[in-house]
Amino acid sequence: MTRALIVVDVQNDFCEGGSLPVAGGARVAADIGDLLHRWSAHEEGRPAYDVVVATKDHHIDPGSHWSLKPDYAQTWPPHCKVGTEGAGFHPNLDPQPFDQVFYKGEHEAAYSGFEGRTASGAALADWLREHQVSEVDVCGIATDHCVRATALDSAGLGFDTRVLTALCAGVDEDTTAAAITEMSGAGVEIA
């Protein structure tokens, strides 16, 4: 079996100091960065991933997804605008040994990494299948939004899916707990 790690939306705007910060985002970025360093350095005890991919919010004009009066459920402050520093990966991720990056939400809201495509247009599910991936670990920001949507889609598409909660940051305790319950009920392993 081939295992992939999906790093979800660990971008400057979702970490402390960004336009839509999640508490603990920078710490999660550093912890994932450490994991990626061990994986890419082939150190003993390194994580057993065959491929590592990332997703990025990649907004040009996402319509009503952005609002100057956001409700923080369906509408949000402007974030991850293409070409801004906020859209970049958080520097704590260095080095970034991603095998591929999937961009989502150019002209609409997009929560799941499976809505993303590579710069050349390949969809995440197709890319994983082309690389014979059957097992997926998911981490990143935010547990109760994009991590949740990505994990649910992963499981729904038939991948054995696990969420690494120690490598995730959630927006709200209650919605994070509800997301974990929902993911678990959908067959996602919570680790």
What report would you give on this structure?
The chain is of the alpha/beta class and 191 residues long. The chain has a domain at 1-131: Isochorismatase-like (Rossmann fold, 3-Layer(aba) Sandwich), CATH 3.40.50. 26% of the residues lie in helices and 21% in strands. The chain is built from four helices and six strands. It has helices at residues 25-40, 124-130, 143-156, 173-185; strands at residues 2-8, 51-57, 100-104, 133-141, 160-169, 189-190. The protein starts with a strand and ends with a strand.
Pick out the low-confidence regions: none
Share of helix, binned: 25-40%
Count every helix, treating DSSP H or I runs of 4 or more residues as helices: 4
The CATH superfamily of the domain at 1-131 is identified as Isochorismatase-like
Strand order of the largest sheet: 3-2-1-4-5-6
Mean pLDDT: 92
Helix and strand composition category:
alpha/beta
Please report which band the strand proportion falls in: under 5%, 5-15%, 15-25%, 25-35%, 35-45% or over 45%: 15-25%
**End-to-end span in angstroms?**
19 Å
Q: What is the CATH topology of the domain at 1-131?
A: Rossmann fold
